[in-house]
Design a protein that fits this description.
By secondary structure, the protein is an alpha/beta fold. It is built from 7 helices and 4 strands. It has helices at residues 10-22, 39-52, 68-74, 81-99, 117-131, 144-154, 165-173; strands at 2-6, 26-31, 60-62, 104-107. Strand 2 (26-31), helix 2 and strand 3 (60-62) form a beta-alpha-beta unit. The protein is globular. 42% of the residues are buried.
Length: 175
């Protein structure tokens, strides 16, 4: 099964790629993350993904670009930022998966114990219904720590926050 894997960063992709392959899926990485801020953080994550994917023989599709204004304009309110973020990224992934004939799509966001898993799945199911491509649910969280440890061993860039300016603010203000 050919699966489009939305990738938020290289470290989170490690365990996801391994699990997908173990389940018989052939993943293609899909980079679409208009939420990541500032640009230097966006570039560091994008470049780490671009460097890592060839080392594990995973094709990479880079969609969109740095789009802080688009992300902020899509926000109905600060309180809805995660819902909006999930929607932007997973709808783009599902749309691309459908247009390119993938068997399914999923996301590395499902590896993080810090993400709202139920909300992610709900958004993904709606995207799947809209674009007519199945959402492949995988609970990657059991391998989160393993993937992070391997990222350290490989010297991959590892970020300190989810990605948006609000999560960066929380990183500094909640210490």
């Amino acid at each position: 099964m050919h699966t489009l894997l939305h990738v938020c960063c290289a470290p989170c992709s490690i365990a996801c790629i391994d699990m997908l392959r173990e389940q018989g899926h052939a993943p293609t990485a899909y980079w679409f993350n208009p939420n990541i801020h500032p640009y230097t953080e966006y570039r560091a994550r994008r470049d780490a993904v671009a460097a890592y994917m060839p080392t594990v023989n995973v094709p990479l599709v880079q969609a969109g670009g740095y789009d802080l204004r688009g992300f902020l304009q899509a926000l109905p309110s600060y309180d809805d930022r995660c819902q909006t973020c999930y929607t932007l990224r997973l709808y783009s992934t599902a749309q691309y998966a459908a247009a390119q004939g993938f068997d399914s799509f999923t996301s590395t966001l499902l590896v993080s114990p810090y993400q709202n898993h139920a909300q992610l799945c709900a958004v993904a199911e709606k995207a799947a219904a809209k674009y007519g491509v199945p959402f492949l649910y995988c609970d990657f969280r059991e391998r989160f720590r393993e993937g992070q440890a391997r990222a350290r061993e490989l010297g991959l860039y590892r970020q300190k926050y989810c990605g948006c300016m609000f999560s960066e603010e929380e990183r500094y203000c909640n210490k």
